[in-house]
Amino acid sequence: MADVTTPPGFGLLLPSPLAELRDDRLTGRDVTLWLKRDDLINPEIPGNKWRKLKYNLEAARDQGHRTLLTFGGAYSNHIGATAAAGHRFGFSTIGVIRGEEHLPLNPVLDRAVSRGMRLTYLDRGTYRRKSDDEVVARLRHEWGDFYLIPEGGSNEPAVRGCAELPQEMDTGFDVICCPCGTGGTLAGIAAGLEPGRRALGFSVLRGGEFLDGTVRDLQQRAFGHVRANWSIEHGFHFGGYARKPPELEAFVSDFHRRHGIALERIYVAKMMYGIFALAERGAFERGTRIVAVVTGP
Fold it and tell me: Which of 37, 223, 230, 232 places its Cα 20 to 30 Å from the Cα of 114?
């Protein structure tokens, strides 16, 4: 597979920083926590967005595609990251947005358009069938040839990109945690772990139990086997994907006061809340060393 050449002026902070977080709520339980700051990889393509897109960009180039098409909601950061990656690496981009067009564009879509992305819209019923051959064929008829990246970016190339994350860390750890929206990041991280370590995902979706099957399917398709070294916590979604109840907001504010870090609320804050809650319950054995992947928005 050919390398995607990083264009001049395009900075990637890799490996992303790893820093210990000292918090008496954890040290009192003899639990050590490091933050893997993937959110600092690149301002426009942060965290798992870059890891998921990396090998998709290479596959698109290897297959001779010049256009990327992907799906997302009106506030999808995956849409924005795909637009930025296309702009940086010389691909045209098409964003298929759930629902009707609303003008003026919100900041996420406006930025995507500023990076050259063309937008089209699917009503919610059709959007639910976006993976059907009929819908994809209709999009190809309208837009021509393209390389398709699924909603959220989770597919076999994405999983292989995420599998590289554990290789960047030389510190000893027992558990590595990440938020789960589409399952690709967890599937990859777990596949890249050395024996004796495990991965723990925190679902941000209400009713996200289907993610267990998704992770297994992604690992099978990407690597030909399923690892048994991971699990998903489903009790920290706080009511659903974009919900931000007072309890979560209070945690975010307190975390910022203690550590000077503003937690992204949809994904990262739910994971961090879950880690602290599990530690408080004694779910981690004394002496457990944890890495939390700060994936960014």
Answer: 37
Rounded to the nearest angstrom, the gap between the alpha carbon of residue 2 and the centroid of all alpha carbons in its chain is 24
Q: Is the distance from CB of 271 to CB of 202 less than 8 angstroms?
A: yes
Q: Are 31 and 284 in contact (CB under 8 A)?
A: yes
Beta bridge partners of 292: 35, 177
Note the pTM of the prediction, 2 decimals. 0.94
Q: Which of the listed residues 108, 127, 145 is the one where a domain comes to its end?
A: 145
Q: Which of 86, 114, 145 is the last residue of a domain?
A: 145
214 and 274, same domain (yes or no): yes
Q: What is the pLDDT of residues 187-238, one digit of tens each?
A: 999 999 999 999 999 999 999 999 999 999 999 999 999 999 999 999 999 9
> Which pLDDT score, from 0 to 100, does residue 127 have?
97
Establish if 51 belongs to a structural domain.
no
Q: How far apart are CA 66 and CA 59, in angstroms?
A: 11
pLDDT at 6 over 80: no
Q: Are residues 22 and 167 in the same domain?
A: yes
Neighbours of 285 (CB within 10 A): 11
Please name every residue paired with 291 in a beta bridge, in sequence order, or none if there are none. Answer: 34, 176
Establish whether the linkage from the previous residue to 46 is cis, with ω within 30° of 0. Answer: no
Residue 242 domain boundaries: 18-44+155-293
Same domain? 160 vs 133: no
Establish if 53 belongs to a structural domain: no
CA 16, 84, 241, 129 dihedral sign is: negative
Is there a domain that residue 198 lies in?
yes
Question: How far does the chain reach from its first CA to its final CA, in angstroms?
Answer: 29
Number of domains making up the chain: 2
CA distance 166 to 234: 23
203 in any annotated domain: yes
* Same domain, residue pair 200 and 275: yes
Does residue 1 surpass a pLDDT of 50? Answer: no
Torsion of Cα atoms, 273 then 278 then 279 then 285, to 10°:
-150
